[in-house]
Amino acid sequence: MKKLVAAVAGLAVVLFFGTFTGTGAPAPVNSQGVTFRDVTQHAGIRFVHNNGAFGKKFLPETLGPGVAFIDYDQDGWPDIFLVNGKDWPGHTSKHSTPKLYHNNHDGTFADATHQAGLDAVEMFGMGVAVGDFDNDGYDDLFVSAYGQSHLFHNNGNGTFTDVTQKAGLGGVEEFSTGAAWVDYDKDGRLDLVVANYVQWSPETDLYCTLDGKSKSYCTPESYKGTAVRLWHNRGDGTFEDVTKKAGLGDPTSKTLGIAVLDYDGDGWPDLLLSNDTQPNKLYRNNGNGSFTEKAVLAGVAFSEDGVARAGMGVDTADYDRSGHPSLLITNFANQMLSLYHNEGTGLFVDEAPQSEIGRASLLTLGFGCFFFDYDLDGWPDVFVANGHIDPDIQRVQANVKYAMPPHLFRNLGKGKFEEVTKSVGAAFSVPRVARGAAYADIYNDGRLDVLMATNGGPAVLFENEATGGATNRSLRVKLIGTKSNRDGIGAVVRVTAAGETQAQMMRSGSSYLSASELALTFGLAQHDKAESVEITWPSGQVDHLVNVAVGQTIVATEAKGITANRPYGKNLH
Q1: Which of 181, 300, 344, 466 allows an S-S link to 131, with CB 3.0 to 4.6 Å?
Q2: What is the Cα–Cα distance from 538 to 340, expressed in whole angstroms?
Q3: 426 and 418 in contact (C-beta within 8 Å)?
Q4: Which helix or strand (DSSP H or E) is residue 357 part of?
Q5: What letters, b where the CB count within 10 A reaches 16 and e where it falls short, cover 129-138?
Q6: In angstroms, what CA-CA distances link 521 with 234, 324, 337, 380?
Q7: CA pair distance 218, 222, nearest whole angstrom
Q8: Which residues have C-beta within 8 Å of that of residue 271, sequence separation ≥ 6?
Q9: Is residue 154 a contact partner of residue 141, using CB atoms and an 8 Å limit?
């Protein structure tokens, strides 16, 4: 008898990298009064994920979908992209495609899928990565899938063209999951790293059961692993597979998530891969086009008792102002989250077992996850989307549910967190079978809203509302690279206010199968300005801005400083 499917590993690309003032920094200010309100229906989001399930319990059905925020028309307002699955051959009942929703600037969205040309391709979609691979000023979409993944070029006129074959990505049919854009060789062009899960097909599907009577989803331990793929951007619209050349060809991985971070502070983007029932991988960028695997030496391959867990989603941030990016990885039920603290010596220590984060997450199964400053107090908080993979799990484990509420952990400073899920609105804590999750400021009010996908169910959009006197302020930064890639992915932005410095890296990927907006939000509590904003670009260019007012989004262009700004509630100018 085989076991129930273990889970999903997430590795994503995010890095809060930088120098805070250290452990002597003041604790976060009291910022109660934030509510997450379900605005899905009001916003006009009418989407239900098709996982293709028809009773055979095929493995890909359990994993998706991802979600993304993309400002595809460059109007300064984040739009929404939702990944979809499809029916299995011989069981077709409907036409299923991804969905693109245009932000109308008034809290509502319009379905722009057909107009954008994104309803022509059916695929068993999994994840999505957003980035401007040809530096034309318009962000493109890569959609990972079971089977053939797809690259959609943004034409700059509200439409997309499927350029998968033209770009050299055609003919590669795998069980692809997470993905991220990263300029790993710092040549000014975005490359693409794609996670792959296991070697599975309907023809090789195994019969697994929990109770000896009915079929269950198999654990990935039942199938062979496979390597991630690294696609190098040639700069002419095509990509070359450099996986083996770069040292990423380990065929034992079963990867679900990808995060990008510079864990050793050498200025080169490293890769963290969260693996399902296999050790996580941490690939150090050697700066010469190759990577060296360091997860065991760094202490992030296994749990503290030496077990390879079922990793799903992943993110990274300097959550305690130590000056080094730490790691968050979601795992299967009965395994708790991983909160690997970066000791600054090349080593990580899992702080979850002695943290509220570990205790609260022991019985939940996490997928999407990210650090974000939901209350704008300057300290990154933690969101986790939860949901099991088998509807019958309670027959085997009475204390583990199929649908689960999310986790929201407020950062109290000094490495401490408290769960506040039940205090931010009844709709937010409703149990769901959640998967991908992402954040963006969809209302141009300086606060970060949350988008969450459910497996076989609707997407849910939550507005971050300041209530009860919550008045913390923020500064948002959008980057335009010139020598560096156009999105500024890989750039590190350091913001200093009242002597306190926080830093973030512009990144693609992270969470689980999802992509948050390509803009950085810095919570600045009650401060009315940032004395300095320092931007270190991948090219090596360093730009310095001084006395930047809060309450606005600034556009910073490489070597030119602020080239546009938009006060909250107004249009970009």
Answers
A1: 181
A2: 26
A3: no
A4: helix 356-360
A5: bbbbbbbeeb
A6: 32, 19, 25, 10
A7: 7
A8: 11, 13, 182, 184, 193, 248, 258, 259, 260, 281, 282, 283, 285, 291
A9: yes
**SS3 state at 443:** coil
Give the integer Cα–Cα distance in Å for 486 and 503: 20
pLDDT for 379-391, tens place per residue?
999 999 999 998 8
Specify the residue for token string 């190759």: 290
Name the DSSP class of 490: T
Q: Is the pLDDT of residue 5 over 90?
A: no
Number of H helices, E strands in the chain: 5, 38
Judged against a pLDDT cut of 70, whether residue 456 lies above it is answered with: yes
CA distances from 167 to 179, 189, 277 (A): 16, 14, 33
Q: What is the CA radius of gyration of the chain?
A: 21
Q: Which of 314, 195, 339, 212 is nearest to 261 (CA)?
A: 314
DSSP code of 442? T
Task: Tell me which H or E stretch contains 114.
Answer: helix 113-116
What distance lies between CA 353 and its chain's CA centroid?
A: 24
CB contact at 8 A, 444 and 572: no
- The distance of Cα 15 from the centroid of its chain, to the nearest Å, equals 11
Could you give the CA distance from residue 488 to residue 135 in angstroms, rounded to a whole number?
A: 10
**Backbone phi, then psi, for 214, in 5-degree steps?**
-115, 155
Q: What are the angstrom distances between the C-alpha of 80 and each of 166, 177, 233, 406, 441?
A: 26, 19, 26, 21, 12
Assess contact for 467 and 33: CB atoms under 8 A: yes
Cis peptide before 65 (omega within 30 of 0): yes
Of 142-151, 211-220, 339-348, 398-407, give the lowest mean pLDDT range: 211-220
Measure the CA–CA gap between 339 and 175, rounded to whole angstroms: 27
Are the C-beta atoms of 176 and 149 separated by less than 8 Å? yes
Report CA-CA distances (Å) from 466 to 63, 283, 425, 460.
33, 40, 12, 19
pLDDT score for 94? 85
Q: What pTM, to 2 d.p., does this model score?
A: 0.94
- Which amino acid is located at 405 in the chain? P
Tokens encoding 231? 């696609």
Dig out the tokens for 324 from the structure: 């080094």
Dist CA 475 CA 532 (whole Å): 12
**CA-to-CA separations, 398 to 86, 393, 395, in angstroms, rounded:** 32, 8, 6
